Amino acid sequence: MEISDSEVTPALNAHNKDEYPPMHTAEHILNQTMIRMFGCGRSRSAHIERKKSKCDYALSRSPTADEVSEIERRVNEVIDADLPVTAELMRREEAAAIVDLARLPKDASETLRIVRVGDYDACACIGAHVARTGEIAEADGRFSIISHDWADGTWRVRFRLAR
Hints:
By secondary structure, the chain is α+β, with helices and mostly antiparallel strands. It has one domain (about 20-160): Threonyl-tRNA Synthetase, Chain A, domain 2 (2-Layer Sandwich). About 30% of the residues lie in helices and about 30% in strands. The strands form two sheets. The protein has a four-stranded antiparallel beta sheet with strand order 1-2-7-6. A hairpin with a 3-residue loop joins strand 4 (about 110-115) and strand 5 (about 120-125). It is globular. The termini are far apart. The model is unreliable at about 1-10 (pLDDT under 50).
């Protein structure tokens, strides 16, 4: 949605975090990889930091060692594809046709910012991202899962970007 000079610039909700763009973009890629591999939703909760991060996913079982390796491979494949990362403003009803808005805060603005990682992922997000996925590897190296555990239907994964 392009905004003309005659329109008022929409007010988006304030952001309460200062993410490290390469890691935050890697989280988007990981979320979509989990959706594609396991049919789960995006992470239930996430703690994204520069050195290491974690996400929790609703899964009925823990991924096998081969599946964990496959998650890493797929995330790195998307990073290596050097996909463009773009943001687009759109009205909530238009966004609902593209992304899941179930976890959108009740006080979210009518205009949403949809972030796309090429044709791999799209979600409503107000955080900071790289301009293209190749910047993740250029800045920090490869995506790797450093530990994971499963309990009571939640798979917690800790990951980092490192050379």
